Amino acid sequence: MSGVALALHQFRFDQKTFWRNPASVFFTVMLPVIFLLIFATIFGNDRIEELGGVKTTTYYVPAIISLAVVSATMQSLAISLTVDRENGLLKRTRGTPLPSRVFIAGRIGNSIIVSALMLIILAALGRVLYGVPIPWERLPAVLVTLSIGAAAFSCLGIAITAAIPSADAAAPVTNVAVLPLYFLSGVFIPESEIPNGVLHVADAFPIRHFFEAFFTAWDPSTVGAGFEWGHLAVVGIWGLAGLAIAMRTFRWTPRA
Amino acid sequence: MAEPVISVVGLRKSYGELEAVRGIDLEVGVGEIFAFLGPNGAGKTTTVEILEGYRRRTAGEVTVLGADPARVDREWRERIGIVLQESKMHPELTVRESLELFAGYYRSPREVAGTIDLTGLTEKAEDRVGRLSGGQQRRLDVALALIGDPELLFLDEPTTGFDPSARRRAWDVVASLRDLGKTVFLTTHYMEEAQALADRVAIIAHGQIVAQGPPGELAGRGDATARISFRLPAGVASADLPEKLGAAVGNGEVRLEADDPVPVLHELTAWALERRIPLTELEVRRPSLEDVYLELTAGEREEKAEE
């Protein structure tokens, strides 16, 4: 098989593994949906005056899509790769003719497909339940933002495995890395409620920039194509840093 | 003579100060089942992982299937199969799917159904891996190592943790590999396993090979002194035995030693028949592989016990 065919082969089985694992389906697929329903229910159809009178639900759709993408890429990859590493599955795969980069490409492909699916689910729920318009005219910006974000957070997820000592530690470590940032970056709480100093802290990390880019692409009051190249550049630089770390530190053999 | 499948000369591996492998030489020929025995920590897994291409060596020459495992390519990986000491497949996939996944990695894999049959997993083919017993998972490991139709298989302690009947079944699988013409490099710490399966055995202790040869001849087993033992009924004293047998008695058991046991047995049984004396528990044995192994690795085990 060629490299692409092999990556598709790997991807096909990664999909089966993903959808049959109750934890991955719950945390990656169900939880973002639940978050959207909860936040939309709590904050209703209020408007956020500081953000040009945008409806709260319109704010939360891109916020929760950002969360879902980070969850489907960075968290999901970090957890599944650590578990597979500790089970000896990575070591054994390394002993086959499958090239390492093809194996990793299959896994990243899996994460990107799940991210795209989450985009569709959350956009549809936002439209049907809360009347949040789908920004068809800014679709290129939405897809470019999704692709850059999914790729960058996938690289960060692979990089973070080096800091995870055991399979049991995988979920806690990734949650410690992202949960505070969801709060600080305005994903959980509208940024109008967050002090400026805190937002500056969040500005150092990629989640806030990714969300900003998604928000602009989704916001009905955006004028123009909706590309936030500055924010996307920060996300991209984080992704490249993650890739560099991953290439130097990624382990195929169990640590424990 | 055909090129050896594995050839190792002067292999060394150090981890900092610790020398795990201290200069070993090995050769494994085509179609051989070679057992590599030794206590835990003697350097077995280090050696096999160097041969598999997982670890770098510190010194020595290693050739496996004509290549240096420290610099191998995809082509070489097509020709070997590996059963690691510990590894689990995705619990979410079925046995068949696991094999289909791995079959896709190889250019000319074996047939999936046939490989499932060979490893005795036919009834479990549609079961999720997470629901298999330990022994069944291990047989799946062997099936996954076979799926690429390799010339050479590495089995690292394939039956550790098996109950006796599961071990027998696993032996049947390994023995069937011989019929397929595969070369097998097996590590184990079960003597019966080496005895039952291997054409040749090497024993490693303290990172060095202390004995090497066919299991029947290891460390002079073939021509070692035979021990004859039996019990005499009440009322018969060992002093009544023919004097030239040189019997020794301990715990009611009479023991004789002989380089050539045939004339000694002839003498003994003639004496017993004549007097109608039953020789209960009569036994003739040479040192077992286990005796040889325990003797050769004695220092290693004492050291371990001190740790």
What is this structure, in a nutshell?
The complex is a heterodimer of chains A (256) and B (307). Chain A is an all-alpha fold and 256 residues long.
Task: Describe the SSE topology.
The complex is a heterodimer of chains A (256) and B (307).
Chain A: H1 3-20, H2 22-43, E1 47-48, E2 54-55, H3 56-86, H4 89-94, H5 100-130, H6 139-160, H7 170-184, H8 196-202, H9 206-218, H10 229-249
Antiparallel strand pairs in A: 1-2
Chain B: E1 6-15, E2 18-28, E3 33-37, H1 44-51, E4 59-64, H2 74-78, E5 80-83, H3 95-103, H4 112-118, H5 134-146, E6 152-156, H6 164-179, E7 183-188, H7 191-197, E8 200-205, E9 208-213, E10 226-231, E11 248-250, E12 253-258, H8 261-275, E13 280-285, H9 289-296, H10 298-306
Parallel strand pairs in B: 3-7, 3-8, 5-6, 6-7
Antiparallel strand pairs in B: 1-2, 1-4, 8-9, 10-12, 10-13, 11-12
How would you portray this structure in words?
The complex is a heterodimer of chains A (256) and B (307). Chain A has ten helices and two strands; from the N terminus they run H-H-E-E-H-H-H-H-H-H-H-H. The two termini of chain A are 34 Å apart. With 256 residues, chain A is mainly alpha-helical. The relative contact order of chain A is 0.16. In chain A, helix 5 (100-130) crosses helix 6 (139-160), helix 6 runs parallel beside helix 10 (229-249) and helix 9 packs antiparallel against helix 10 (229-249). In chain A, strands 1-2 form a two-stranded antiparallel sheet. Chain A has helices at residues 3-20, 22-43, 56-86, 89-94, 100-130, 139-160, 170-184, 196-202, 206-218, 229-249; strands at 47-48, 54-55. Chain B has 307 residues and is α/β, with parallel strands linked by helices. Helices cover 32% and strands 26% of the residues of chain B. Chain B contains ten helices and 13 strands. Chain B has helices at 44-51, 74-78, 95-103, 112-118, 134-146, 164-179, 191-197, 261-275, 289-296, 298-306, and strands spanning 6-15, 18-28, 33-37, 59-64, 80-83, 152-156, 183-188, 200-205, 208-213, 226-231, 248-250, 253-258, 280-285. In chain B, the strands form three sheets. Chain B has a six-stranded mixed sheet with strand order 5-6-7-3-8-9, with helices on both faces. In chain B, strands 11-12-10-13 form a four-stranded antiparallel sheet, with helices on one face. In chain B, strands 2-1-4 form a three-stranded antiparallel sheet, with helices on one face. Chain B starts with 5 loop residues before the first strand and ends with a helix. The model of chain B has no long low-confidence stretch (mean pLDDT 86). The interface between A and B is medium-sized, with 24 and 28 residues.
